[in-house]
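ingest -> validate -> predict -> emit
validate: passed (alphabet ok, no gaps, 397 aa)
predict: started
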Amino acid sequence: MHTDICVIGNGTIGKTTALGLAQAGYRVSLLCPPPSPAAKAAAVSAAWDLRVYALNDVARDVLTSLKVWDALDADRVAPVDGMVVIGDGAHAGKIEFDAYGAHVAALAWIVEHRNLDQALDAALRFSRDVTLVTGSAAALHVEANLARVDLVDGSCLTAALVIGADGAHSWVRNHADIGIDYRPYDQRAVVSNFECSVAHQGVAYQWFTATEGIIALLPLAGQRVSLVWSAPDALAATLMSESPSQLAARLTALPDQPFGQLQPMQPERVQAIPLALIRAHQFVAPRIALLGDAAHAVHPLAGHGMNLGFGDVAALLRALSGDDASRDCGDARLLAAYARSRKEEVLMMQVATDGLQRLFSTQFEPLRIVRNLGLNLLNKLPVIKRRLMSHAAGGIK
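emit:
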């Protein structure tokens, strides 16, 4: 099969990329692995998904342009109208953000993975220029004017451009000989969902601690919250060995916790995901482009890993959009323009999240005092706060 572009990866970023490129006038093949029994069961489950994303305006705009945002189940999307960040220790600092102060409709929108995935799948079924291919890649060959992906079943896909949107352990990145810088955080993101006895009012809370990692409670639709606890490996193992009710009791006892008594949502489920910093040495290679976690992975403390991926999609669409239908979408100059447009934002986010993780993981008491004072000082500087919120929302002024 020959198409203009072959996208490898059936996650959120891969599907969004395929839809966007098809809308831009390209013929696209999307290579997806066969669905596992667990994935099939999850697709039809009515339970709340443990994976949630805090999507900013850039992500929302991309999904809106593809007519995916309005196809989401709106009853399971929660706007984040405010955020409170709390430091640690006896004199914990605090900083508060709100959408009104940032002059935006919402700081972010909390969307379940399954909700988004189902809306993307529905859009793909109606896209005439996207061909879904079920299979597993075996080899990648790049020639002067063409790239070829050989599949395990003996068939092959050819295209002018191959896009790797296949996650942190990217097959495309490895077979394109693109190296990475990899540093494990020795932490796991422990995720679960809870009912709360006090309404969250659309406000997310985050606790930075020196010994127990970073704890975030994000508002879900209704009187529910989603937990993302970036816990050191030893603590994560303890949390996973406890019952969800014991985990709820830990969260209920957090300082300044505003959600009242927390109870595990049914069915009771807890999951732990290893965390690491990943920097691809380059975003592109001849006839290859990397997007999403294949190009970069960041600490989840800011909730912007998925948003960086949507930024990649938007940048690639800009680089490949134009009126010249005969142009080569795998041209090195177009790919270089995409890579340049993403370098600064991705680097800034990686430096910021990595620096904050290091800053708040130290137990050096003088530094703990300084960082808490810094939070309190920043809370009294509305201009700087507004700039931070603007950047987090995707550059809205």
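The first helix runs from residue 12 to 23.
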